[in-house]
TrEMBL record:
This is TolC family protein. It is found in: Cell outer membrane. The keyword Flavoprotein does not apply. The keyword Signal applies. Residues 1-25 form the signal peptide. It comes from Sphingobacterium bambusae.
């Protein structure tokens, strides 16, 4: 038992140290999507932008409060100086001085610009949140695309392996027939050519399969050495979901669920609020400030003893309080406020136009997606008929070829047609599934094969 445990521990250490392939169970589409959303760096980058906007909002709220500052200074002078504390010009002696002050100011009124800036920053925060959702949505569609592409290429690879088995078996039979004189050199060469062609299809399909798996792993931020199998969808069950599709229903749901539409609406609200901020420049601004200060000088003497007054005594006697109310009325500022307002209004019109373009593009995209789904459905059923027909034709030609009633070229053509029809049927099948999942993507349904 101890030896078994030691062996397991050693295997685990080898894996950690040398990066052996990680073997996972079957990777479902939902798991692939969730893994991507948890790990992808694009989402993390967008979330940082959202957090920066949170700090900007916090700063704009803090601008409503008065500021507060404290200062202290001290110095030593020798020679000709003017002492601020005593108000005297001093020659040929040294002087030690010190001072302290504390002050505060607040903008009482500024054309509601600070309030409107807070509202604008809240809208910007919503825009950044919708940007995170938009990136997630785009990544979900990318995962679905790569996942189904990997399944497609995997089935094409399996089909290619089955086809080369058939070709090798035919070559074996033709070699036997050639040895007894029932087949010609041309027949044998044709069979060898068929095997070589099918083996090339295996290599091509295997490379495409590995590349699509690599793309999927990169989306999930997984090691290229990770090993997993993919879940295949139930075609009949999935297509039943899309038996009845209404463009109006899909479009209305997309308007409620697509982050890009939500983002366009927030951009309009932000542009409108920026107009209010710019108009604030027309209003007077009112500022209130207050402060306290005191100081000390070694030249501040007691008139009776002619000795410098003590430090804390001077700080108590020399204290000063001050407050100030400032009003600034804008009269002419070289049309800067006017231009800022005009620019903000133009940005508002741009945002409205962008919203209209977004809705129009979504409308066109959904219309095209529904049309693509219906067309893919028809293509799949047509490809099934074509494959079944080509398989029947191949079997008939093979029976004739085996008894010498068909030549090798006819046999080669029939098998090639069957292979091509099988490949096309596989592609059409998963193209149909993908088009259906695109509809789910737009209406906000969970992307799953269940």
């Amino acid at each position: 038992m101890i030896r078994k445990l030691s062996s397991c521990l050693f295997a685990w250490l080898v894996f950690v140290c040398f990066g052996c392939p990680v073997a996972l169970a079957q990777l479902s589409l939902e798991h692939a999507i969730q893994t991507t959303l948890d790990r992808n760096l694009q989402i993390r980058q967008a979330q940082f932008g959202y957090q920066i906007s949170e700090q900007t909002l916090y700063q704009s709220k803090s601008e409503l409060y008065p500021n507060l500052s404290f200062g202290f200074n001290g110095g030593y002078n020798y020679g000709l100086i003017f002492d601020q504390t005593t108000g005297q010009l001093i020659r040929g002696s040294s002087n030690t001085s010190a001072g302290a002050n504390i002050g505060s100011s607040v903008a009482v009124f500024q054309g509601f610009q600070k309030i409107n800036q807070i509202k604008a920053n809240k809208i910007q925060l919503s825009i950044d949140a919708s940007e995170v959702d938009k990136i997630k949505n785009d990544l979900i569609l990318s995962v679905v695309t790569n996942y189904l592409e990997a399944i497609t290429n995997g089935e094409l690879h399996e089909a290619a392996k089955q086809q080369v088995k058939l070709s090798r078996e035919q070559l074996r039979q033709d070699s036997i027939q050639f040895a007894v004189g029932n087949k010609t050199v041309a027949d044998l060469a044709q069979s060898e050519n068929q095997v070589a062609t099918d083996e090339l299809s295996i290599m091509t399909s295997e490379n495409a399969y590995e590349l699509s798996l690599l793309n999927l792993k990169q989306l999930m931020e997984m090691s290229p050495d990770t090993i997993f199998t993919l879940e295949k969808p139930d075609i009949a069950e999935i297509m039943a979901e899309y038996a009845i599709l209404s463009f109006d229903d899909v479009f209305e749901k997309a308007l409620d669920t697509q982050p890009i539409v939500e983002q366009a609406g927030y951009n309009i609200a932000l542009a409108k609020k920026n107009i209010d901020i710019a108009k604030g420049g027309y209003y007077p601004s009112i500022t209130l400030s207050t402060g306290y200060g005191t100081n000390y000088s070694s030249q501040f003497l007691n008139m009776q003893t002619l000795n410098p007054l003590p430090f804390f005594t001077q700080f108590n006697r020399n204290k000063t309080f001050q407050s100030q109310l400032g009003v600034n009325v804008p009269i002419f500022n070289n049309n800067r406020t006017k231009v800022a307002v005009n620019k903000a209004k133009l940005s508002f019109l741009q945002a409205q136009t962008e919203d209209a373009i977004t809705r129009r593009n979504l409308q066109k995209t959904i219309g095209q997606a529904i049309l693509d789904l219906k067309f893919a459905n028809k293509q799949y059923f047509t490809s099934q008929v074509a494959f079944n027909s080509s398989r029947v034709a191949f079997e008939a030609i093979k029976e004739r070829y085996d008894v010498g009633m068909a030549n090798s070229m006819e046999m080669f053509t029939a098998q090639t047609n069957m292979n091509r029809a099988e490949f096309d049927m596989i592609r059409r099948k998963y193209e149909m599934v993908f088009r259906g999942k695109v509809i789910d993507y737009y209406i906000g349904n969970p992307i799953t094969f269940n």
